[in-house]
Amino acid sequence: AQGSVITSSGTPAPGTQLIIKYNVASGTLTAVADTSTPTLGPRVVSVDRHGANFLAGWSLFNQQYVLLAQFPYPTGSLNVGGHAYDFVRNLIYAEIPSANGSGPPVLHILDTDNLTVRERINLPEDLGGRSVFSSDMNTLYAISDSGVTVLPVGSFASAHRVAAEEEQLQFLSTNCDNGLLTQTLHLIDLGGGHADFELSLPANTNGIQISPSSGTTPAQVTIQVDPTAFSSQSGTTVVPLSISSNASIGISSPVRLLINTKSPGQRGIIHSLAGEIVDILADPSRPRMYALRQDRNQVIVLDTATFNQVGVLRTGNTPTKMTLTRDNRYMVVGNDNSQIASVFDLDSLTATPFIVFPGGHYPRTVAVSDSAMFATSRNAGTPAGVIDQVDFANRVATMPSTLGIFDNSVNPDSVMTGSPAGHSIFTAMADGTVLLYDDSYAAFEASRKDLNALGGSYSAISDTLFMAGGNLFNRSMVQEGAILGASTTSSILVSSGSAVVINAASPTSAGTAQRVTASAGVGIAGASTQTIEAPVTQSILTTPPVGQIGETVLSFLRTTASINNGTTIYLSISGFTELPPNFDQPTPSPVVSSLVNMADGGQVAPGSLIVISGSGLAASSAAAAGLPLPTSLAETCAAINNIPVPLIRVSPSQINAQLPYEVVGSANLVITSPGGQSAPFNFNALANAPAVFRTGQAGSLTSLPLIYRAANNQLVDISNPVHPDDILIIVATGLGQTSPPAVDGAAPPADPLEYASVPPAVTLGSASLQLQFAGLIPGEVGVYQINAAVPHKIGAGSQVPLVIQQGGISTSFNVRVSNP
Questions:
Q1: Are 311 and 302 in contact (CB under 8 A)?
Q2: Measured between alpha carbons, how far is 641 from 630 in angstroms, rounded to an integer?
Q3: Which of 185, 531, 729, 789 could anchor a disulfide with 770, C-beta 3.0 to 4.6 Å?
């Protein structure tokens, strides 16, 4: 859409649409003469409660007539569709037919700032004009095909709408876990009630069992995957799980089942991230990375130490690319369905005033040099795009009439990026044109078109070397060669004269990663390494629901980033994949030398915390981010008697883990790492093997047993001896199985407590202590607590033996007992 403000006395051109505003206070009329493709249909205007924003046809404007957001792919039909603001719930209800839409009419429930779709509701027929609310704002009356449709919007919140709490579920098979893979799907009724549901898979899907496949919400659904049914797949298979309900008024989004059967030679760690992720960016000043989720109009902020989500930023409609200002203080995001660029303060993770673009200009990419900021924009109603110059201080963009000696007419499928030193801005276009802005001369100084097409990854490697789709260009925009192995479908990360090139034969295959030394077109390729998942190689402009409103494929996609001193992150089917810095280095085969309990280095029992020592156990070091404990860390897993082992921490020489509760008697351990599989390590697991942790410290004393006096909650030592009538709290491992049964790697609950199945006996000298509790500490995997009462009559001494005996196995140590 394009517009210009005219007064009430002005005369618009024939065929121009008018948006007229009446100011009650001043009694004046102003109007915007609007030209749009297609026409702003349906012919309906809706205004928010305060008159700050309004919807006209398929466009959302503010009072200054800035187009904040629009419905993608509108048909422009004047007599189909409609919308209305819900002042009470701060929502918009709208039916806007789309050019590539199909199926029955759908009412979209949207956010009022950027038209993000929250929910979809089935309509009995198409709306066709004005909608009005009842006085209590609980009923919406909308003109429709047959007359008037009555929508009880006040009761939508309590109406049946079946949904899954999870957007996608991962099933990761390893050589340590050859059994069925199990995940739980939680189905709820967003209305808070009980609604029927039915789950279905595509026809001829094998290897997946769902129980129950139908029922009533709320429900926990167990999904089991037989990895052998997918063993012929080297990458990740995506299986959509559809949800239907007879009682639900809403349209349920399908759940993606992501099934990966990793072999030992495949490198990489998959991190699940749902949605249409179209850009990824590392923060050079903070331990963060950013992922642009287009279907939710969000920037997802992730902590690079744990990859946990730490924030969400709301963008305009259909965000496309992110960039940082030169001081790394602000992030600027282009939007394909908003005539604004979103701006965020990264110190506070808050939105700041947006950049307003000329009417009809939709910024897709923004680039920054030391003294200039430019954007490539889609230009509404024309086949060509333009480059706009941004005044960041005043948050406004203007279109230069020319780009120096070049016409300001570019391919709309273009990208821009600034060089690391800030001295130039490189532009690559899908038609093969490349363009360079030189900050020293404040001018666009070079442009060439030696190729028929460009696409894929792009980068300004330096002020003199640039890359698009693996092709290298010098500052004169002359092609100087190509990065070996790269193509328009490659994910490529270029830095410090080297490149990581990630390819895949198909989206569902495994990828291959290769490090290439590149300088002015001369390349030396390293060994090729197979990766766990294929990279994403194209960007599709969509708005939810995916597949319902059409799509436009963009040629360029930034899919890689470098974080944490050399770790490569690339967008992949499940979200993103982490490749360690040494992914292309030879990894030794794992060798196990010992397995002992973590408390005192002795024997082990079911549920014990254990320490595995050896060499080549992992390619790098990593620790579990939370509970339940994972069974794979840093591309390493362990299996005991073919049972996967919950892992706490891994390194090349040591693994801290929990012995599964199922393991008792003769057992063998096998480690699988990028270097292969270890030979079986044989050991014996006792039913009970009590061991007290020796990690206590009091003053200069270290390695004290973890025995506390409940009276003061301090460790027992020479200066804090045991007293008559004390309650001793002993922290241990190895007390074996529990009642009710504990779950491997999971945090024990506080209710019910999980008691040791075989109660231990505790003696202090010749006196027996009364056992008050022996079981797992809530929230602590594999850590047991013994509470024992000291009798009133107890012999004193500086070296009194305290003995814990369980199932014929005992452990002991001396403590000081004072009997004043």
A1: no
A2: 18
A3: 789
Band the pLDDT of 811: cuts 50, 70, 90. Answer: very high
Distant-in-sequence contacts of 111-114, Cβ < 8 A, 24+ apart = 112/48, 112/53, 112/85, 113/53, 113/68, 113/69, 113/314, 114/68, 114/69, 114/297, 114/314, 114/315, 114/316, 114/317, 114/338
Q: What is the pLDDT of residue 358?
A: 96
State phi, psi for 129 to the nearest 5 degrees: 150, -145
Is the Cβ–Cβ distance between 745 and 628 less than 8 Å?
yes
How many whole angstroms separate alpha carbon 791 and alpha carbon 112? 70
CA–CA gap between residue 536 and residue 785 (Å, rounded)? 49
Asked if 507 and 237 count as a contact pair (C-beta separation under 8 A), the reply is: no
Nearest to 328 by CA among 418, 453, 428, 444: 418
Asked whether the predicted pLDDT for residue 327 surpasses 80, the reply is yes
Q: Which residues pair with 321 in a beta bridge?
A: 334
| 618 touches 634 (CB < 8 A) | yes
Cross-strand partners of 708: 715, 729
pTM: 0.90
Q: Per-residue confidence at 5, pLDDT binned at 50, 70, 90?
A: very low
Residue 811 burial by CB count (10 A; 0-12/13-18/19+): exposed, middle or buried? buried
Give the Å distances, CA to CA, from 721 to 717, 730, 792, 798.
Answer: 6, 14, 15, 9
Q: Is 155 helix (H, G, I), strand (E, B) or coil?
A: helix
pLDDT value at 550 more than 90: no
> Which run of H or of E encompasses 269?
strand 269-272
Question: Using CA atoms, how far apart are residues 170 and 634, in angstroms rounded to an integer?
Answer: 17
User: How far, in whole angstroms, is CA 51 from its chain's centroid?
Assistant: 36
Q: Given the structure tokens 């609980």, which residue do they identify?
A: 138
Rounded to 5°, the CA angle 210-213-217 comes to 120
Q: How far is CA 637 from CA 454, 610, 617, in A?
A: 41, 14, 9
User: Half-sphere exposure of residue 52, counting CA atoms within 13 Å on the CB side?
Assistant: 6
Is residue 83's pLDDT more than 80?
Answer: yes
Are 379 and 371 within 8 A, CB to CB? no
Place of tokens 């929508």: 151
Secondary structure in 3-state letters for 13-73: CCCCEEEEEEECCCCEEEEEEEECCCCCCCCCEEECCCCCEEEECCEEEECCCCEEEECCC
Q: Is the pLDDT of residue 301 over 80?
A: yes
Phi, psi (degrees; rounded to nearest 5) at 228:
-65, -25
Q: Which residues pair with 331 in a beta bridge?
A: 324, 344
Q: Which of 384, 363, 555 lies closest to 458, judged by CA?
A: 555
Q: Where are the alpha helices (DSSP H) in 254-351?
A: none
Between 725 and 558, residue with greater pLDDT: 725
| Mean pLDDT of all residues belonging to the chain | 92
Length of the chain: 820
Measure CA 218 to chain center: 26
- As a whole number, mean pLDDT of residues 445-467 equals 94
Whose tokens are 């001295």? That residue is 423
Query: Does residue 423 contact residue 369 with C-beta atoms inside 8 Å?
Result: yes
Measure the CA–CA gap between 330 and 345, rounded to whole angstroms.
5
- The two tokens of residue 453 are 């097409």
Q: Mind giving me the DSSP string for 789-817?
A: EPPSS---EEEEEEEEEETTEEEEEEEEE
Structure tokens at 111: 């956010």
Average pLDDT over residues 86-101: 89
- Of the candidates 55, 126, 40, 125, the one whose C-alpha atom is nearest the C-alpha of residue 85 is 55
Residue 322 CA to residue 309 CA, distance in Å, equals 18
Name the DSSP class of 239.
Answer: E
Helix (H, G, I), strand (E, B) or coil at 147: strand
